[in-house]
Amino acid sequence: MTLQSSSRTSFKALPDQQTLIRAVLTNGVAGVGKTVSVQKFTLDWAEGLGNQDVSLVIPLSFRELNLIKGEQYSLLRLLHVFHPTLQKVTAEQLAGCKVLLIFDGLDESRLSLDFRNNEVVSDVSQQSSVNVLLTNLIRGKLLPSALVWITSRPAAANQIPPECVDRVTEVRGFTDAQKEEYFRRRSSDEDLSSRIISQIKSSRSLHIMCMIPVFCWITAAVLDHMLTTDQRGELPQTLTDMYSHFLLVQTKRKKQKYEEGHETSPQQLTEADRELLLKLGRLAYEHLEKGDIMFYQEDLQRCGLGVTEALVHSGVCTEIFKRESVIFQKTVYCFVHLSIQEFLAAVYLLHCYTSRDTEVLKDFLQGDWDDDNDSRDQDYPSLDVFLKRAMEKSLRSRNGHLDLFVRSLHGLSLESNQSLLGGLLGRTDNRPETIQRAISNLKKMRSDEDSDERSLNILHCLTEMKDHSVHQEITEFLKSENKSEKRLSVKRCPAPAYRLEMSEEVLDELDLEKSKTSEEGRRRLTPAVRNCRKAVIPDSGFLDWEVVASALKSDPSNLRELELGVDLQDSEVEQLSSGLKSPNCRLKTLRLRSCSLSEISCSALISALKSNIHLRELDLSSNALQDSGELLRDLLESPDCRLETLSLRWCSLSEISCSALASALKSNIHLRELDLSENALQDSGELLRDLLESPDCRLETLRIRGGETITAKIQKKSDSGLQKVLDEHRLSLRRRCERVTEGTDKSETLLNSIFTELYITQGQSEEVNTQHEVRQLETASKKKPLHDTPIKCQDIFKASPDQQTPIRAVLTNGVAGVGKTFSVQKFTLDWAEGLGNQDVSLVIPLSFRELNLIKGEQYSLLRLLHVFHPTLQKVTAEQLAVCKVLLIFDGLDESRLSLDFRNNEVVSDVSQQSSVNVLLTNLIRGKLLPSALVWITSRPAAANQIPPECVDRVTEVRGFTDAQKEEYFRRRSSDEDLSSRIISHIKSSRSLHIMCMIPVFCWITAAVLDHMLTTDQRGELPQTLTDVYSHFLLVQTQRKKQKYEEGHETSPQQLTEADRELLLKLGRLAFEHLEKGNIMFYQEDLQRCGLDVTEALVHSGVCTEIFKRESVIFQKTVYCFVHLSVQEFLAAVYLLHCYTNRDTAVLKDFLKRDWPYENSKNRDQDYPSLDVFLKGAMKKSLQSRNGHLDLFVRFLHGLSLESNQRLLGGLLGRTDNRPETIQRAINNLKKMRSDEVSPGRSINILYCLTDMKDLSVNQEITEFLKSGNRSKELSMIHCSALADMLQMSEEVLDEFDLKKYKTSAEGKLRLIPAVRNCRKAKLTDCKLSEAECEVVASALKSDPSHLRDLDLSHNALEDSGVERLSSGLKSPNCRLETLRLESCSLSEISCSVLASALKSNPSHLRDLNLSLNDLQDSGVELLRDLLESPDCRLETLRLSCCRLSEISCSALISALKSNIHLRELDLSLNALQDSDEKLLRDLLESPDCRLETLRIRKETIRAKIQKTCVSDVEQEVKTDTKAPESFSPEHTTESSYRFRCPGSGAFQCASTGLVFVMAQEAELLYRTVPWDESLLQSAGKQAAGPLFDVKSSDEAAVCQLRLPHSETEDALLLDGLLSVVHITEEGLSILEPLEITHTHVVVKVPHLSLYGLVCDILKRVLFLRIKGQVLLFLQPPGREDQILDVFLLQKNVPKEVVKQQGRAVHIKIPRDCELELYKGYSVHCDPEGFHIQPERQKFDSSFGEDYNPTFQVFVKTGTERMDLKVKDQDGNVVWNCLVPLEESRVPSESRVPSESRVLSESRVPADQRLLSVRTEFIQRVSPTILNDLLDKLFESEVISESEMTSARTKPQNAGAREVVDVVRNKGAAASRVLINALRELDPYLYEELNLS
């Protein structure tokens, strides 16, 4: 839900707010979520998550307070009664607390809050009426230190005087996005959700009502039922329709629930149903008349309703609370939402009308009963008259409480709803003529005395009666060009006002003087002021000034200029002033000429303006201000006043006023212009003249006497000069950015109305872009958002929490059309509108398209800014230096500049001239204007022009996610059904769906499908890219005709000769520039292709003029196609046309060496057949290094089909596309060789087949994969298809072994791209070239990289191939653990590159095989550096047969002395000297060397001594059934645990249950941290244990973690229930367990960070029963009783709960039990009579930082023991224990002498207690604690120095044994010192040993 102010921060003052916030009033319509907000605030406070500065939160609802209406209470007693837990709070304690009192539901109050009553209550013990208590609390007289929060519906909020409230907030309910989220989350059926959303959007009234969460539930209940059952007839369109169906659905549910009958048609209302509903209707009606929305049992009985009757209709009337307070057992009822009460009230009254219940009707209509009766029966009104009278009564209601009721009455009068409700309403005279009279009555209805807002309900009633004529007329009026000439009747005015006010587009000007209507009509148009920038309101009699004030208060307020020409009363100025002082007010100009302002009015106005920092111009001319100059002086002297122009003509200003103004001007630094003409100034005029010439006064222009204008002769300093320039610049940018063109040149759209947030990620894929961008989209589409760091466009310069340095330069990448420029435009617009990045003073967008125009010219930075942004021409170098500037360089890929960062020419002065290239490189490097921020956008291929060291952050615009694609199509069209059909079609085609990541392609697709689905188009919808673009060309041509030729709409297939000629010219332009690699061009380029500028632009959807510079120095216009793909398509159209027209010059130039062809099958030997031509084009595209011709050649193949040629009607000419020719082209593609290109590039062959609509390869590969038979021989094209399928699969392949596939050598190479999506890849002996190595490298660079094991053995890798591979190995994304490069012909250069790469990223590699490579000595020297690196984790190194010499051996021996990880070294088949072998053998036996296995010659030697190694430890732990060694960790001041692990083995933490499997000695530091629930939910997981943050002094020391779980044996049988999440800076990953024991989940540790146990959300539902624990803590005693805290927790919640209980004593009792998640539990005790709170509590999974008691038992002091039970909601006992209290009781500290507070001594002697825990103490005391204990014992003279030294020199356990025995033998006193020292140093072990 949307709140204007987050409820958690409601009491936090804004940065610029000086006063504290004491009282908050929160408004919101019924059901919008106010009570939920209160509940969430209270829960967060209670759980310690917010507002912890508040000591005591006390929620009270008016529903409860109504129960003691009229009784006498003190505040203290009231709190004791409503919150029994506070019964012991005294008046003194209450005064010392920071209290928050929450009064929820003021609109439900039956109390009379009289703030005029001056009775003061200031003592919390003083009794008074509840009314008086509340008014004193709210006014701050009673408990003035308390905070007060009141919630209310808007109609009741005015009961609280404004002066009593410091902040007003509003709960707005669901945003549009949240509405959709609600419906989608409510149902797992995506299609059903979409249909429901579609239906809601089709009705404006339903869509608006869905802001209310309860209405969303009502709507979902109805539509879900209607769409999933066989319901006929139209879906509900109006509110009345919806509620009529809702009544039937709820009745049906009641029957299913209580009557267990067969499902019947919902229309079958029985007599019993009708009787019950009418009783509920009477209840609703009678309470609506009184204004009540809740009622009690006696109210139900008065209407003949039994409580059970009401509650079986639980969807309509629900028991909303039962107080547990002992003094009242009164239950309160209400309808689930006010609108249901209003609807049922209307049902009841219409039933009374049809039943002629005159008593009810007379009581309702009162004096209107007998008036104006047109019916035949003169004693009874006709239906139209009855409705008219009801409408008139509702309009007289001041707060509109009958509006929805009367809407429902009108809707229920229709025959459709009456038949739906099956006899419930009776029969009415609803003949067409009667209904028409009722409609006419509404249209003629006057509401002169009513608010403009209220008269809108007449329109809503017409909607309910399904009469849309007024709306249609107003729509035509607003569309018409001559609005000022059309007269608007009074009755029509509310409709356009409403439409204008609710429009998404802000009106530039609303001038009521120009409106052709009466004064009353102008008044009714006034609400439109809320949605305009400038409003002119003439003298038009009575105006609703609250409307004008609300326009200034609204958030956001759009009003910038307000001109009033009316006589203003003091009360009206007061209302206006309330808007002017609102923090939302952004008014810059206020004109109040001739408004008859009194002194009181002037005072109120000036008071409001003093706090307004936005006003720049104020005109109070022609008002008799006289001595009000004193007030004006206060305004001008206010530090917040920013007035620049003040007009006071004809204001009868006195001498005193002028003196006051002159005084103010001496200190005011902003006012520039003052108009005092037509005032009798006398001598003070001279005073002002002198002031004008003073250098201290900033005034520049003064008008006095007869309009004489005097300008200052001296130059004035103008601090506001720069600000004025910046304001103008903002305005200029806003105008430039607020509208955008979606493809077509003229149809501009508001950016904010269509902007869909793009998916922008921090960082980018490191893969080298050797593929066409469409292919890059394919790869990106597979990425899960989980692996990315999303970042909002507005936040790209905000450093992340872990980033220390500020961000100066940002590079944003993204494929063409993905939305980079839109993002820049949105960022700039938000800045210009003051909505974001306001710390930046100046945003300067510059595009490379523009900068290309001054290529080669000399500019200074200052002049460049002046030229491209004329609004900045007055900005000086000095001013630029003090501004925080952001320079945006958009479109680096379009640059024709040469950015040479190796050029060392430095430019550091903004006035220094240089070439544009040099200026830009200096700006980007930070040499020029180093304080400026820089943002560069680029397509990926061009981004590498910027050196990485110049960039602080790289982001990538990924375009639309799947959800954002849908949002785009839904926002683009108001026809929800059309949107759904478009979305459905796109999802059916993989290529279209992926392309729709690009916003421009979404627009292209929408244009095509919108046209085809809304016109009489036959044939199938486009399936391929070629289909879409062919249709797009036709749609754009047709639009051009409609726009410029004004002809009749023709079939889109009818391309005229002129169309064809123009499109071919555009095609030539596209083709020639595609060949050159250009995507933009100038007028001369157009002319070269025979194109006139006008010709190009009438085809504005294809080629658009994308900007015209307003700069005076160039008038050169730049053009480009709306998207690169359109250029590629037109280029293909042109080339195919050239082929069919035998334009051999173009073809020869394109195909070059492949021309002419030798083709015996051709009759004409000099010209190729179509299949041969396409084959040549395909070969050329494959030769392109970056794939820039891939999409072009796809289009060529698609256009060769007869279907597309026919579609384009002669544009392409006639080709030989007989079936046999097309089949030959398809066969050519299938046989196409691509030996010399990257395997990834050959995928495009497959796409060409798709565009030729040949799906045979895909079908064959699908069957191949399903069969599981790998013996089938695969062709090359099959291999391309298989590689594509494998790498795009959602499932990661465990192993990819090329040898398992039966195919040719080239076929195997084409399979290699599948390596990107596997964990283990075997690519042995397959003749890998540099291109294939590039693909493997990209697999290592990809994010995430799945590859863990890579075997490239027996490939002759050249240096270039190894260099490519190394680029992947050094990537931070690389997680490779095993690399085999056996017999790869590695040279010295290769070895150097490889070692360098591995050294830069060595932490993951464990196994490296370089055998059978001629490494020689130099290669091994490099490997030594790798082995000596502290980050190297290699465990196995194989260097068999590598021609190693004595030098190599020495290098390896040297490295092995310091390397602690290498376990196996293979040096076999190397000519080693005997001396070398001896050194290696000796090293193997050294305890300092970790090597265990050595291979030399043909011998395998294993170390004779025991070595500690990671793999052995893991194996030992796995096979050893012995329990892990338990330890008690040391507790640090940062709430962390510390443990010094003595060596290898398994160690279990006694506090957390966490087990560490260690390889070696290390120090561990770990703690629990809060979960990020949103991160888990996105992965479909929920927490099943604490989240641990683990650190180690040596990361490699930790092999495994075992996380404790709380699952039952049955639950563990469910595969996949539990897993472990590993959270790093890169995101969240799921680790599959190595093993799940009955207590722990075991995982291998890749590297240390955050680890936590999670369960699958869906599988959790299958097993809700878990192992639980009951923990008891006894708080210190009070005077009469003490509190026993009872915790119900999951078994694996850490013992840190103990730590949080302060001085409470942990009672050691059996704690294990089984609990069921989400089930209710209660606590019971014997003896009875103790107060237990709460009575029942739901058990929930919780692993937070803080744990609060589930229950509290108030135990009488002196109780020795109690029998405690925990029962579930079914009454079953799940845990029972006899709890000893006397032994656990600790005296209250206040009563114990300080010297006795060390320890509550047990009756058992201390030395005997030590003896009882001796063994456990020895095993569990940590080395650190033991050392500290020795120090304490020595300092206390319990042990001698020699005893201390002796214990320290012994091993851990032996030392602990010696200490405990020595101390115990010295007696009880010595033992007591040890126990007390342990209590101080390790309270957790002390508690665990039960030494207390």
From TrEMBL:
Main location: membrane
Domain spans labelled FIIND: 1518-1793
Domain of life, source organism: Eukaryota
SMART domains attached to this UniProt entry: CARD (SM00114), FISNA (SM01288), LRR_RI (SM00368)
Protein's UniProt keywords contain Protease: yes
Gene3D superfamilies linked: Death Domain, Fas (1.10.533.10), P-loop containing nucleotide triphosphate hydrolases (3.40.50.300), Ribonuclease Inhibitor (3.80.10.10)
InterPro entries tied to this protein: CARD (IPR001315), DEATH-like_dom_sf (IPR011029), FIIND_dom (IPR025307), Leu-rich_rpt (IPR001611), LRR_dom_sf (IPR032675), NACHT-assoc (IPR029495), NACHT_NTPase (IPR007111), NLR (IPR051261)
One GO cellular component term noted in the UniProt record for this chain: basolateral plasma membrane
Topology with respect to the bilayer: Lipid-anchor
Domain NACHT: 22-156, 808-942
UniProt-recorded Gene Ontology molecular function terms: ATP binding; peptidase activity
Similarity field: Belongs to the NLRP family.
Record's protein name: NACHT, LRR and PYD domains-containing protein 1a-like isoform X2
Gene from which this protein is expressed: LOC117554400
